[in-house]
Amino acid sequence: MMVGPMTQSLPDDERISAIRDRIDSLRNQTNALAERALDAATHALEARSAARATCNHAAQAAQMRVELDAVEHELEGLRTAMQTRGVIEQAKGMLMLQQHCDADTAFATLVSLSQTSHRKLVDVARQLVAALPVGADSAT
């Protein structure tokens, strides 16, 4: 029941009962609104937190670019190693045959020649392979 001019014509007990009913109804509505407001606030907080946690695409893209650059650099180094390994191994073998030494000593010789001549190891190996005749060793 509504409290107002119509309830004034009711007896006191009924008026009090109508007022109590209206107060209870308003309390229920207020509680329902408070719950909805709390739910909305919670949802808004979750949405803001999620947005901060997932909206760092620019930073993620920058990090991925750095990692990709590192992988590309490593790949380029591996390609170079694959291309130069054969001639270095060939030069080592030729030195081992000519100087009657092991692989580590032959490689150390190549490294030493590279450092003293200030040239890349692969360039020293190429020159050595080109300079030594096929089948040449120190016994002939």
Structure description:
By secondary structure, the chain is an all-alpha fold. It folds into 2 domains: 7-54; 57-131, Winged helix-like DNA-binding domain superfamily/Winged helix DNA-binding domain (Arc Repressor Mutant, subunit A), CATH 1.10.10. It is built from 4 helices and no strands. It has helices at 12-54, 57-99, 103-117, 121-131. Helix 2 (57-99) crosses helix 3 (103-117) and helix 3 (103-117) crosses helix 4 (121-131). It is rod-shaped and about 130 Å long. 6% of the residues are buried.
- Low-pLDDT parts are none
Report the CATH superfamily of the largest domain: Winged helix-like DNA-binding domain superfamily/Winged helix DNA-binding domain
Topology order in helix (H) and strand (E) letters:
HHHH
Largest sheet, strands/sense/barrel: none
* E-strand count: 0
Number of helices: 4
Question: What is the gyration radius calculated from CA atoms?
Answer: 44 Å
The residue fraction in helices comes out at over 70%
Examine the secondary-structure arrangement and name the CATH architecture of the largest domain. Answer: Orthogonal Bundle
The secondary structure category is: mainly alpha
Name the shape in a single word. rod-shaped
Count of distinct structural domains: 2
Mean pLDDT reading: 84
Strand proportion, as a percent range, falls in under 5%
What would the CATH topology of the largest domain be? Arc Repressor Mutant, subunit A
